[in-house]
Structure formats: structure tokens, C-alpha cells
Amino acid sequence: METFVLTLYVLVWPLIVAGTLFGICKGFFKDWREARQEGRTLI
Amino acid sequence: MILFIYPFGRRIRKVAPKAHTLAEVMYARHGRSSQLMLAGSNIVGSLISLTSNFIAGGALIALLSPFSFGQGIIVIAAGVLLYTLWSGFRASVLTDFAQVVAMLGAVVVIIPAVFFAAGGPDMFEQGAQNLTPQQSNFFSSDAFLNQGAPYIAAVLAYAIGNQTIAQRLFAVREDLIKKTFVTATVGYGATIIGIGMLGVMALYLGLTPAGGDMNNIIPQMASTYLHPILIAVFLIMIIGALSSTADSDLAALSSIMMADVYGQNIAGKKKANPKTMLLVGRVTMIVATAAALYFASGQMNILDMLVFVGALWGALVFPVIASFYWEKVTNKAFTVSVLVALAVFIPVRFEWLPMNGAVGIVTDIVAVVGIGVVLGLMSFGFFGLKPAKIIGAVGALAAAPFAIGFLHDYAVLTGSLVAYAVSTGVCYFMCFRNSKTFDFGLIQQRIGDFDNRADEEAVEAAAAAK
Lengths: 43, 466
Fold this sequence. Notes:
The complex is a heterodimer.
Chain A lengths: L1 H37 L5
Chain B lengths: L1 H14 L6 H8 L2 H33 L4 H49 L4 H5 L6 H4 L4 H21 L1 H9 L5 H29 L11 H9 L2 H39 L7 H23 L5 H24 L5 H19 L8 H26 L1 H19 L7 H21 L9 H6 L6 H13 L1
InterPro entries (chain A): Trnsprt_adja_ssu-like
Keywords (chain A): Membrane, Transmembrane, Transmembrane helix
């Protein structure tokens, strides 16, 4: 049981980070596309 | 902890929408001494942060490549300086996306890769005997008091004392402040804890840091358990992540020197020349890089440095936050409270005072007040003044029986809490009877752009329309 909990504890963080990374990438490319369509700089 | 900054961020943007630095807002709110105090602490903090990143990069390069630590820090410093010098904050933001992908990608790929290469779940069964009772306890009071709690107090102070966070607060689109801070909280928290898992695994595997230097643990884990291709990926990813922080620090240092030192204090707001400001910013970056390289050659412990500067900033948190909400705070109260807090913090942090007897008890009592202040400040942004007072008071009273008598044994935590408590107490008692009040609307009038580019663009647009 303890081994399972520790394994989960170690591997859950990369999963959360993967979710965050997906959200950031999605937002970045959406903004980039919109900026290009409107002919303005991203920043 | 970043999430707790979010409500303060919204308030700061509302009061000073055109500001560039927090110190600049303090100039508009109070005057020169408050501004320079905040600017000075920002400079110290960013320089320490820059140094820490160079050390981490140097340690990584020394362990994972044929280059030495000295060569490693020079390569990283030169790389970061070149692209930041070229385009300043714009380059910092442009490279941020790639660096965030690198940093988060490293956690997603490297942690599971090391975990399975090091034996997977079996390491927890076979390596359990390598842990001390405190290390095997998930709720270890030793770990919390030595690292967890000082880190909580330090991170709360980071957003106030660190211009790298403030500059993003002023740059981010107002409608995205909440999303930005929630993403930063989840992403940063999981990334830091995820990287910490390498330390947990090192502990179970019985890995001792090379040369007794804790900075070497992560590169050692990577070099021991990763395939050479993954080591190369890891090196690129971590260097990218380090560069991201380092370029933010360079941009932060240059904006402080441009806006707070040259713009407000040397040339004056109306006479400041944008071209001279740019030159000041660029020279600052070169000087800061050289200084950080010099300090990095000392190879100090990174975590100690960051917690030290976080605790140092604890002296600023209450006076700065109160200045945005409480119209009674004065320039004198701000300056005196920060100086007194620093004067108390330094001997406590470096254990210059004999802590046995009355001095230890008094220090513990002040630190308990500091617990109340930290909890109160964290609650205030979300729930308002009354709940914050209740949460702070209940928190301090609940902690008192467990803390008084032994908390002073943990100098890092005690120093930080004392800084919070003293600055809050001095600032409050110097202000609560003040009959003069401040009109926050004045800040918006007093802070504006240093160039008139927006006005010129508006004129051009109007001319084009005709």
C-alpha cells in the first residue's frame, strides 16, 4: 500500500505539469493565430 | 503561494495601471525613501536570483558535460546577456514560451524516466532503510520547520520584493490576470514539487551528493539514471528554464535602474530621455551579469540564498500591501518599519544573539505574531479585513503553545517571521493615529509613460484617418 502511494506521489506531478503545459500551449497558439490574423505583434 | 498574490495584483493594477515597477508606485504613494528602499531590495533580490541561476547552470554543466563549473557559468551568462541585451523585456517574454515548454517538458519526461530507470516502485521497498525516521515521515515537523515553512513565508514575500513577478503583473492583459496566476500556481507548484521528486528518489536510492554539495543532487540523478540522449535533452531543458529566470532578472534590474533610479531620481520624470533610459538599462544588464558571475564563483547553496532573500523581503510585505489599501500609511512609517524589521531580522537569522532564556522567549513571541501576520495577509486579499484579522489571531493563538520555547531553534523560519511581525507592528503603531489620509486616485495621475509614443501614435492615426 505504502509503495503504491509513494509511486502515485512521485508520478502525479509530471501528470499535473503535462496538463498545465497543454493549457499553456493551447492558449499560446490561439493568441498567435489571432495576432497573425489581425496583423499585430503577439506581445 | 503565488495564488495569494493574485488579489493584491488586481488592486495594484487598479491603483497604478501605467506603472512599470512597484518601487515607482511607492514613489507616487509615499516619496523617495520608500521607493529607493523597495528598489534597493529588488536589486539585491534579483542579483541573488541571477547568481543562483548561474550556479545551478554551472553545476549542471560541470556534471553533465566536459566543461568546468567556471566555463559553464560564463557560457550561460553570455548567452542570456546577449539576447536580453538585444531586445530586453520583449526578448524575455518571447523566449519565455520556449523556456516554459522546456522546463515543464523536462518534468513530464525526466521524472518518470528516472523513476523507472532507478527501479520503479521497488526502490521504495529496497531503499526504506536509507531514510531517517524524520525523512520517512510524510508530516515531518523537521522538514516543515527547516524548509517548508520558511519557503511559504519566502514565496509570499517574493511577489512584493521581486520585480520579476511585478513586471509581469504590470505587463499581463488585465482580463487574464486571474487565469495567469492560477496557471502559474498550478504549473510552478507541480514543477517545483516534481523536480523535488528527484531528491526523494535520491534519498531512497542512498545517493550522496558529490563533494557534499546539495546543488549536485539533480544533475547526479540525471547522469546516473538517464540514457545519454535524455541527458542531453535534460541539459537543454534545464538550461532553458534557468535562462528564463535569469533573463527576467536582467529585465527587472534594468527597469528598476531605468525607471526608479534614472527616470525618477536623476533626470526627473519630465526630463527623462527614453534613449538615455535604454542605455542605462543595457549598462545595468552588463554590470549585473558581471556581478552575478563574480558571486556565482563562490558556489553557495542555492536554496539557502533564495530563502534568505525571501525572508529579507518579509520586512517589506506589510508596508507595501498596506500602502495600497490603508490611506493612513506614511512615508516615514514605511521607511522606519522596514529598517527596524531588517535590523531585527539580521541578528536573528544569523544567530548573533544568545537565544537561551528571555531573548529566545521574546523572539518566539514575536515570531508567533509573525505567523498571525502571514496568515492574516494571505486571507486579507481573498476575504477582506475582518476575516483576515480573525484568521491571523486564531492562527497565532493556536501556534503559540507549540512554538514558544523552541521556535528560535529554527533560525531561518524565525528570522522570516520576525521580519513580518516587526515591520507590521512598527508600521501599524506609527500610522493608526494619523489623521491625514491619502487619495489613491493621485497615484494614477502621478505615474505615466516615460515616452510619448502612445500620444504620437494617436496623432498619426488621426492624421491618417483625415
